[in-house]
């Protein structure tokens, strides 16, 4: 593991603030809208002190009552430091202030901002989230989905766009791997403590992400990945990125929930289509029917989330035909030309239904382009056809 | 071939009108907007007589000059009768008056209405086009596209919706076959004379369509399927149907042109997605990005083109989970429940972050649903779990 640089970021934040935020990150189960608003209001240090005493508004009391007696702030910070992690707090300049401002603006208690983030890795979240796409999808992904997720994530990473995902089996893992393979930054957002490698099969992957990118969670050390935490975590995936891309998702999936969060946060929602015979694409198709942007190439993702006028997707290559550039009259004359058994100009006039004075110049132009051949008063297509006949 | 019934329809139309329309259908290469407007203006019989004499407005003269001396009306009508076909004219009550009214309304000369239609088959076009979907797509379709086209066309036919297509190899053929297999009506619109079976490989298919549905073309007998005629024909496909569905289409395809025509005619455009790795779905994806409706099931097609409030698509089946119907607090308590090693209520309070007075009733409800087990003062998930653990 490369040496982490927690000292740099943490140096700007007083120890008291870190201890207060560490305590607060454990005292309520996220999302805790009332507590977040209270902290915003009175500051982290006073908020922590008043939560401990129980001297808080009723809504905050309900959120903190069960755990307010548990203060493991010192232990948690030490535990994090022990594994090369640190606590990133809103008082830190590395906090993704602007992307996260959307949480409070929604007014939705399910989309409360995190109180602090436990992070591991050399990258700075504020910078990474400036140009980031969340790539999410099904655990039970198909080979098709894994291929596309890996490919698009790689393309994003090559263009210095951060790939944010949830480190799950399937699409998430493929997205992280695609970004890592392209040497780009990637952020894994966990639904458990920073000290846990979940899923276990991705322990090595999480280790690699922590070496070059960032592993992030709002849950304190030792927190287990309970099911509702995956859904709660998804709002952070959506909130860290300018857009959320679903690669494969079933009809009732966490990825669809992430998309809903992204929409509520005013972020762009994109989805990759797939065979309609695949249940793994059904969630993507449903989203597109409801207004999500269909994307089929990384260029289209970048155009949608990228810088205005800079990240425009080039038009895909289209088939070229020898008759390109002909005007409608020339096309009709060309169509009328026999492939074999040359005919005279009167026959062509009847066949094309065009007056002779427009057939004549059209034939001249077709001959110039090598699309018509003139022999002994009669016309036909070239003996060695350069055009694809239907 | 079942006995055609041309006498019934034709009886309503004077022989003079039929002869005039037969002459007009050959005298100009479609689309002939100026001629169509002129015929609309002065009537078919007078229009034909004046075209013959050359006593017509300049634009009409340009469209008819090359062929005005050719009058094969008698021969063409006899030829049609000989193969069990007939000439359907706007003066006939079986003419699809309302669907075709859109042609003139566009004001686009490329979308001029047909002057007459040569038809073969027992069905009445006016009735078939009341509830019809054009199903079109690539010639070089994949197995996926052929499967979907056949499947959706069959579903449309089962629900008494006419399948209109172009009889081409690939998606078109699959659509016709799907409709025929379901015993439903299907209309094939040709880009050549009614006496020709094109493509030759579909001669038997066209024969079957002519027995139960309708084969239709605006081109006079013996007309060859020149390339531009396929594009010109496509407007009729779009115009006969309430909506146009692309199943597979390349980036530069006749099917995309049909979709553009449908849009110009104010009809709905739908497209089936596919793997983004398949060039055969690229045209569909491009259309969806530009606003076409993504459809993945026949029910979605019917909902879009069908009768308001009657043809609503049922929601697709979604996975059901044992925790469905739990409120958020109950979900959190359920998440906190250990699978093994039962814990007391205080532990559950800490783990869930919820006050004891809400944990208690949640546990009671979970036990009632068989999602929690109480043994000797401690709680856990049922020994024989009925929930899918992640």
TrEMBL record, chains A, B:
GO terms for biological process: DNA-mediated transformation. Belongs to the DprA/Smf family. It comes from Pseudonocardia asaccharolytica DSM 44247 = NBRC 16224. It comes from the Bacteria. SUPFAM superfamilies: MCP/YpsA-like. The lineage of its organism: Bacteria, Bacillati, Actinomycetota, Actinomycetes, Pseudonocardiales. Pfam families: DNA_processg_A (PF02481). This is DNA protecting protein DprA. Residues 112-305 form the Smf/DprA SLOG domain.
